[in-house]
Amino acid sequence: MINRDELVSYVNKLLKIDIFHDYCPNGLQIEGKPSIQTIVTGVTANLALIEKAIAQPADLMLVHHGLFWKKDPFPIVGLKKARFQKILNADLNVMAYHLPLDSHLELGNNAQLARFLSIKVEGQLIEEPYVWFGEFAEPISAEEFSQRIFEKLGRLPLHIAGTARKIKKLAWCSGGGQSFFEKTLTLGIDCYFSGEISEPTVHIAREAEIHYFAAGHHATERYGVKALGEHLAEKFQLNHYFIDIDNPV
Predict the structure, then answer these.
(1) Do the beta carbons of residue 196 and residue 214 sit within 8 Å?
(2) Does the pTM exceed 0.85?
(3) Domain extent at residue 86
(4) Mean pLDDT score of the chain, rounded to an integer?
């Protein structure tokens, strides 16, 4: 068991939240019981995850997508009230880490994608550190990469074939990283991989002759929060349960 404030302080420092300008508050979002023994992790703080965390029962729900976003309306009504009421009635702590969890060099979503997909990391874009680049040990076909994504992430990705050549060097960004695609065109990559795709992305991939794979926002961001939960459980001798509320997007 660990004191809540001690755990919050540890994770805030581990993920270096003070260096990020995010769309949401990172760290403790709702204060619950003062001591934590059991953690439930998940991608998004939706009602289904909240109910499963309470049923566990958990002392802390730790997520990547939290309860507060910059452009959200302030009134706590309707669906928002239902979420908050269950959390407060259960005295459940809620912690959320968005961009800091995408970027962490060991536990982050991009780092976990590299580990799962056997990519050797070479670096991050200086101007956009959420975009990573690296290479495979040996070139693989687009079909082989699609199959690898399916086997490791449980999603058959949408593939835009910009070229017929095999894939050796690639760049990636978990979640909604399609907006960074053009910034990688000078890297000499064969492939860009993310969670989402937009209409213009198709034309960019074809014209730049670069493979583009979109495997789902949720699927590409499962493993950072899971890795963080496992790290905390091991370091502080806590119980940890990762609960995947499936989302096809």
Answers:
(1) yes
(2) yes
(3) 2-97+221-242
(4) 97
